[in-house]
Amino acid sequence: MRDSTVHIAGLGIVSALGQGAASTLQALEQGSVRAGPIALFDTPLRKPVFQAPVPASATPSSRTFDLAMIAVAEALDQAGLPRTGLGERTGVCLGTTVACQLNDLAFYTAYRNPAEDPDMAAADRYLNGNLAEAVARALGAAGPAVTVVNACSSGADAVGVALHWIRSGLCDRVLAGGADELNRIPLCGFHSLGIMSDTVCCPFDRDRRGLNLGEGAGILVLESARSLAERGATLPALFVAGYGAACDAHHLTAPRPDGSGLETAICLALRDADRAPEDVVFTNAHGTATPDNDRVEGATLARLFGEQACFLSTKGYTGHTLGAAGGIEAALTALGLQEEWIPVSAGFENRDPDIPVAPTVARTTIAGTAALSTSLAFGGNNAALIIERSAD
Prior knowledge:
Blueprint: E1 6-15, E2 18-19, H1 21-30, E3 49-50, H2 63-79, E4 90-95, H3 105-111, H4 121-127, H5 131-139, E5 145-148, H6 154-167, E6 173-180, H7 184-193, E7 213-214, E8 216-224, H8 225-230, E9 238-247, H9 260-273, E10 280-284, H10 291-305, E11 311-312, H11 315-318, H12 325-339, E12 341-342, E13 364-365, E14 370-377, E15 381-389
Parallel strand pairs: 3-7, 4-5, 4-6, 10-11, 10-14
Antiparallel strand pairs: 1-2, 1-8, 1-9, 6-8, 9-15, 12-13, 14-15
């Protein structure tokens, strides 16, 4: 390992799979796919979604923050860190798209009606709704706090930013990842794009018809070896080894057909980690189950890793959690390395003749130490993370 190794001191996760790493692993072991009609708000759009279990005490107007804090608490506990008073050497970098800032439709309706007097508390909620800053305030983390809003690569990009903060010496540790909630506005938006499936999604399958939205949070506590040693903590076996990002500059919502932007991002992450393609034992692919994404991503994985590439899309278990996806999938990738197995790619049954590789069709034992997590986003944004486990 290099001196610049950035350890995963703890991780936290909440999604439709459950709350916490233990529940998540159990659900994956059982192959649980917990999709159903949305129960958070009324809508005529009866599309399957992946809703996360959130305590009844959660506040509807702060659902993304509540999801984030569930994962943050688990990650800090696992890292052996307090939940308050984390100080100026602790940063927070979180990705999101919804945050808590799209939950005031009633205010906007009232504001546009001259006969109504809107409650201005909604404006205060909006102005205080920066996710990373809100989490930092709650934790007493006085280091840098940045919210990354880069569509569906936001969570992965946030981990990449945090990686560089620690390597540069700006922070000793960073809470990094992403959080997003199911919300009426993105539900309507993705429906208008015509890329939501009427049935449970099936990534990389020949008969895929689109994505299902999901929600949740995935948080990593990233920490330098020096900081861990100073507080007497054992060096964790998991670490983030590399990050790469590249933009296609091709289309507002569609991926570049040749996958060159994604390939560049993966190659940059491999170079950053000082790894070769043959070192990667599995990939947690973006795999949205949309026709274009899966075709382009599958071809790119085949080009880089060969026709025997080992990969899956965990979106078959979580849905597409938008800005949280990169954080959740980084946590799931780390858990796969830690537990030394990955599950079947949920929903996959029929191989697509237009995709030269196929995802896992059974629980697969993992023998190596390096894995890849990819995130593709609107605007042609591509992000890749290399996560590793110590060989000893």
